[in-house]
Design goal:
By secondary structure, this protein is of the alpha+beta class. The protein is about 35% helix and about 25% strand. It has an eight-stranded mixed beta sheet, sandwiched between helices. It has a two-stranded antiparallel ribbon with strand order 7-8. Strand 4, helix 2 and strand 5 form a beta-alpha-beta unit. The longest helix has 17 residues.
Length: about 190
């Protein structure tokens, strides 16, 4: 019986240690669950090859989508842009990375024009099919592109997860709902303050 009591006390201590007694996040906390930010792609604004290292020191928001998206992508990017606007000058410490899942149609000029309609802290990224597949797999993002065929229109589908990384590139938060922009801004403020 004493062994069971010791085990119960140890299990309780572990459980308490894993609980965060601080203010809860608005988004889902994925600290320690997802891998750190890692990629190699081309940035649309300047045609430069960039990697996660180019964004160290910034809070990074990662979102997968495509420029021909009729509603979800522009709404998500508009909401994220609104959250950045709420940060004022602190928004300069944040970068939103919009990774196209449709590189066939989203050339660098197309992607550059598209992201320029949103926040200045938004970078459009484009990669090879392999680079895109690696990055999507890393964060368990699902996407598919079905080219035009007889009787079928061009179709693109993708997950709507938005990932948030701290200044060190560690995955911290995820959400699929960006409508509450004050809450997004609050969580970004906290990441910036760390």
């Amino acid at each position: 019986m004493p062994r069971l009591a010791h085990f119960a006390a140890f299990a309780s201590a572990l459980l308490l240690a894993s609980c965060d007694s601080g203010t809860p996040w608005h988004m889902t906390n994925i600290t320690g669950v997802m891998p750190a930010l890692e990629f190699s792609m081309t940035r649309a604004s300047d045609g430069r090859a960039v990697s996660a290292d180019d964004y160290r020191g910034k809070v990074v928001v990662l979102y997968f989508g495509y420029t021909h998206c009729p509603d979800i992508c522009p709404t998500t990017l508009a909401n994220l842009s609104d959250a950045l606007e709420r940060l004022g000058k602190r928004a300069n410490g944040v970068r939103i990375l919009f990774v196209t899942v449709d590189p066939r149609r989203d050339s660098l000029p197309v992607l550059r024009r598209y992201v320029s309609a949103f926040a200045p802290q938004l970078d459009g990224l484009r990669g090879s099919d392999n680079a895109l597949a690696r990055l999507a797999r890393r964060y368990r993002v699902i996407y598919s592109v079905t080219p035009v065929s007889s009787g079928r229109a061009y179709e693109v589908a993708h997950s709507d997860s938005v990932f948030f990384f701290d200044r060190g590139g560690h995955a911290r938060l995820v959400t699929t709902d960006t409508r509450n922009t004050p809450a997004l801004a609050d969580d970004l403020r906290r990441l910036l303050a760390e």
